[in-house]
Amino acid sequence: MARRNDVRRYPGFLGITLFCLVVLYAPLVVVAVYSFNASPSITLWGGFSFRWYEEVFFGLEAEKFKRAAWNSVTIALMAGGAATVIATAAALGMVRAGRFRGKGASFALLSLPIMAPEIVTAVATLIFFSLIGLTLGYGSILLAHIVFCIPFAYLPIAARLEGIEGAFDEAAQDLYATRWEAFRFILLPLLAPGIVSGFLLAFIISLDDFIITNFVKGAGVETLPTAIFGAVKQGIKPDIMALSTLMLGISIVLVTISYFVGKAGSTRR
Amino acid sequence: MKDGGQADAVELRGVVKRYGAVTALKETSFAIRDNEFFTLLGPSGCGKTTLLRMIAGFEEASAGEIRLYGEDIAALPPNLRPVNTVFQQYALFPHMNVAENVAFGMRMKKVPKPEIERRVAEALALVKLEDFAARRPSQLSGGQQQRVALARALAPGPKVLLLDEPLSALDLKLRQAMRVELKEMQRKSGIAFVFVTHDQEEALTMSDRIAVMSAGEVRQIGDAQKIYEEPADRFVADFIGETNLLEVEVARTGPEGAAIRLAGAEFIAAPRADVKAGEKTVASIRPERITLVAPAGGLTGVLERLVYLGTDWAATIRLDDGRQITARAQNAHGQKLPVGPGERATILIDEGAPRLLPR
Ligand SMILES: Nc1ncnc2c1ncn2[C@@H]1O[C@H](COP(=O)(O)OP(=O)(O)OP(=O)(O)O)[C@@H](O)[C@H]1O
Ligand SMILES: [Mg+2]
């Protein structure tokens, strides 16, 4: 009976699936493959080589890319870290507050920014920064990243929290733990997989962000995505493909780690 | 305070708990004695957990005083109260093994390591889980987790142990076995246990004294026999065991009891100072104090239904004035009831068995 409703038996299932997969991944595959192209053409295959990767690291624009990469990584580390700390505090507040009116609304409010169109957030952030007279640059990028990373860090932590009843916190305090000790010895270890996974997610989101960064970066300061965009505007060169492939690799690795950390923690319980 | 000057384990003086407009606990005053198994019994939502959580320190009383061996503990946070709790869902720390769980309270109290180890071993021996020290809580059965929770709460040496429906997650057989063990542990530990349950059988079998609660109010406090045989009001009579609640008229009063009239027949009720002849009131009559015999005048009715319950027969009788009562007959000596379903019977009630209740 169940088999009759099996989606795999619907006519055209295979075709549609393949089509979707191709549309989703073909561009990425093309970029990844052509980043190893020996010829400077982006359409003709001229044999395998690492020359575009060498170009990224040692070429004319290497200095610019290195500075941008350094900015990207440090901002992602700090923004991810700060967002994770704030998200953890928010999660902790949710446990300790117990039942309160508007808990559902608070939760929704925290995760809403994920749904808001990024361009709107970008414009709003820029307007806000100029209202308070903030000089645009490294600092403004960092600040904006911390803010938009919070909901991303919060989601895995909150998911983790679902399984941790307030009873653990109370049990710890009942057993002579101060509020800090109850957090340090009980809640933190239980939340840890969620926190790690939240940090990695926030890190990647920050690392990959283009729209908001482009609005608030000011002149002269670049992150990798804005640097790549700048380079592409002068024409697509294969070294951009190499750089993009590197970023894709890092993202895939981090997302995978984040997924497994979150998962490992939940099955151990 | 008791006469000897020794303080009660827990004393509540005019304690009230309000959540906004809801009063979860109306003004309550009573004392839990040293070294006693004290049970809070009542239906869901009557405020048992609320009361327990105020003693533990998780909820603040809206008014009143809570004393622990004479000391006012109202201002102390949970971690500074020498009281431990066995939680309903146990709340065992999933990332620690059994021994670490049991050691946690002592670790937080900064007890020296060797002593912690000794007392963990002792506590695990007490609950017969010596061989499970290295297991995670998730690798234990419900009954074993329950015992770890007990060991964890007892190991730091609290002055009072609080238990919130700790047996409700266990199956019937295990629950019955744990009742005996819990009572035994209370005796061995020599501290007061405050036990919350909505299961009257549980309360009756384990408790030294029981507080029967309803709608945020303590209705009666007494030992099992007292609350069963001398219920203070309709609620207690109805909630504890089975009973017949019947409108009766007081015929005469005297030191040996009050004569009551029920559907024209007279019976002797337990003495009660505050009833007067001619007064209408409610009597509680336990089914097992009622006997059915072949029709012979007195209070009569028709046996409507007879249910076989193994140890007992439960009989439902329709009195001639239309009211219904139930009776229990022990299934002893292979005897049959002298009346069968559909037949008329005379109803005898043990002398002194009816309890007159305030209306
Ligand atoms: N945090 C709270 N906010 C508002 N009302 C509450 C809160 N906690 C408890 N109550 C209310 O107080 C009353 C008593 O609750 P309590 O949990 O003490 O009942 P209980 O006797 O333990 O019931 P159960 O047997 O179902 O556990 C209930 O009406 C409940 O809805
Ligand atoms: Mg309760």
Number of domains of chain B: 2
Number of distinct helices of chain A = 11
How confident overall, as mean pLDDT of chain A? 84
The total count of strands of chain B amounts to: 20
| Spatial separation of the terminal alpha carbons of chain B | 33 Å
Global morphology of chain B: elongated
Order of helices and strands of chain A: HHHHHHHHHHH
Which word captures the global form of chain A?
A: globular
What is the CATH superfamily label of the largest domain in chain B?
P-loop containing nucleotide triphosphate hydrolases
Task: Produce a short descriptive summary.
The complex is a heterodimer of chains A (269) and B (359). Chain A contains 11 helices and no strands.
Explain what this protein looks like in three dimensions.
- The complex is a heterodimer of chains A (269) and B (359).
- Chain A has 269 residues and is mainly alpha-helical.
- Helix content of chain A is 75%, strand content 0%.
- The longest helix of chain A is centred in the N-terminal third of the chain and has 35 residues, at 62-96.
- Chain A is globular and about 70 Å long.
- The two termini of chain A are 35 Å apart.
- The mean pLDDT of chain A is 84.
- With 359 residues, chain B is of the alpha+beta class.
- Chain B has two domains: 3-237, Rossmann fold (3-Layer(aba) Sandwich); 242-357, Nucleic acid-binding proteins (OB fold (Dihydrolipoamide Acetyltransferase, E2P)), CATH 2.40.50.140.
- Helices cover 23% and strands 35% of the residues of chain B.
- Chain B has eight helices and 20 strands.
- Chain B has helices spanning 48-56, 98-108, 113-126, 142-154, 172-189, 200-206, 224-229, 234-239; strands at residues 10-19, 22-32, 37-41, 63-68, 71-72, 83-86, 160-164, 192-197, 209-214, 217-222, 244-254, 257-262, 265-269, 280-285, 290-293, 299-308, 312-319, 324-330, 344-349, 355-357.
- In chain B, the strands form four sheets. In chain B, strands 6-7-8-3-9-10 form a six-stranded mixed beta sheet, with helices on both faces. A five-stranded antiparallel beta sheet of chain B has the order 13-12-11-14-20. In chain B, strands 15-19-16-17-18 form a five-stranded antiparallel beta sheet, with no helix packed on it.
- Chain B is elongated.
- The relative contact order of chain B is 0.11.
- The A-B interface holds A 165, 167-168, 170-178, 181-182, 185-186, 189-190, 268-269 and B 56-58, 77-80, 83-85, 87, 89, 91-95, 104-105, 108-109, 138, 152-153, 156.
- Bound molecules: adenosine-5'-triphosphate and magnesium ion.
- Adenosine-5'-triphosphate binds next to strand 2 and helix 1 of chain B.
